[in-house]
Design a protein that fits this description.
The protein has about 300 residues and is an alpha/beta fold. It contains 11 helices and 10 strands.
């Protein structure tokens, strides 16, 4: 069963990283600003893209959604592959959601965690039989919380309160969003995990020290501090609304179901949807309207 899981994992990794070639209709809009944050924490420039609502008015304080990409993705991927701009424009014009700022936040292939004092790129295998994938180590959680979010609040007209700040993401970005919201629940009022990479312990081999799953959870102490399911069990998430979804043939079903049970037991406001589809850009794009109703609806 574990071997079958690893083959599936390889398949969806290929889909995520190579299945979404950029179309000719890439978003080119004056309301999308490419920003570069010179991070002193990571010691390098970090690129993100910011979507501003139509008729953006600097005298209005807008809620802001930080949307995080998949492993192998980027802020460019979020804007051009997920249909987020077209969806939000249409829904705002139809008064289905309130105007908001959306930050497609670049986090490299980091899972949004603090994984080491040195910022560097390493490789890890998907499994013992397969080729390596890139992973970025560094203090990425600190970068997001202490540099990226304050930068956005300083340079754009945001509602910088907890109630006005949301975070979500797809795949790796879904893991990162849940991890960050559960670890800093005072900073966010809504969090969405869309096909989040919530790997369970039965898929982490004790003998395979080279896998990227073992990199995320090298030992039990690290797992307690990083696993969104365990963080949900341990932390006070009062006032936080959670949205979970994954495809019916996705490898992340078990993790989502377990997290949903934990949140339900703790009486945290949570919605969980099991939609048709596999792990891939097309799945995320096809459900973007539902996601935006969660973030921007009443």
């Amino acid at each position: 069963m574990k071997k079958l899981y690893l083959y599936i994992l390889v398949f969806w990794f290929i889909v995520v990283n190579f299945g979404g070639c950029v179309s000719k209709n890439d978003v080119q809009d004056e309301r999308i600003e490419k920003i570069t944050i010179n991070s002193s924490i990571l010691g390098k420039d970090m690129i993100s893209q910011v979507y501003l609502p139509e008729n953006y008015d600097s005298n209005i304080k807008y809620p802001v959604l930080f949307f995080l990409p998949s492993n192998g993705g980027s802020s460019y991927t979020v804007i051009n592959q997920f249909g987020i701009v077209e969806t939000v424009d249409r829904m705002t014009q139809n008064n289905q959601i309130a105007p908001m700022i959306i930050v497609a936040l670049g986090i490299d292939n980091s899972f949004g965690i603090n994984s080491g004092a040195e910022t560097r790129e390493i490789t890890r295998s998907l499994s013992l039989e397969d080729s390596d994938v890139r992973i970025n180590e560094g203090m990425y959680e600190d970068y997001i919380i202490y540099e990226a979010i304050p930068y956005i609040d300083e340079h754009f007209s945001t509602d910088a309160s907890r109630n006005g700040r949301y975070i979500g993401g797809y795949s790796m970005g879904g893991f990162a969003a849940l991890y960050l919201a559960f670890n800093h629940p005072d900073m966010f009022s809504k969090v969405g995990g869309h096909s989040p990479s919530l790997f369970q312990e039965e898929y982490i081999s004790e003998s395979d020290d080279t896998s990227w799953l073992k990199w995320i959870y090298p030992d039990e102490e690290a797992r307690i501090k990083r696993d969104p399911v365990l963080l949900a069990e341990a932390n006070d998430l009062s006032g936080l609304s959670v949205y979970l979804d994954t495809g019916e043939t996705d490898v992340n079903i078990d993790g989502c179901e377990r997290l949903y049970e934990v949140l339900t037991d703790k009486q945290v406001e949570v919605e969980f949807n099991l939609f048709p589809g596999i792990h891939g850009f097309a799945y995320c794009k096809s459900h973007m309207e539902k996601y935006m109703l969660f973030y921007g609806g009443e």
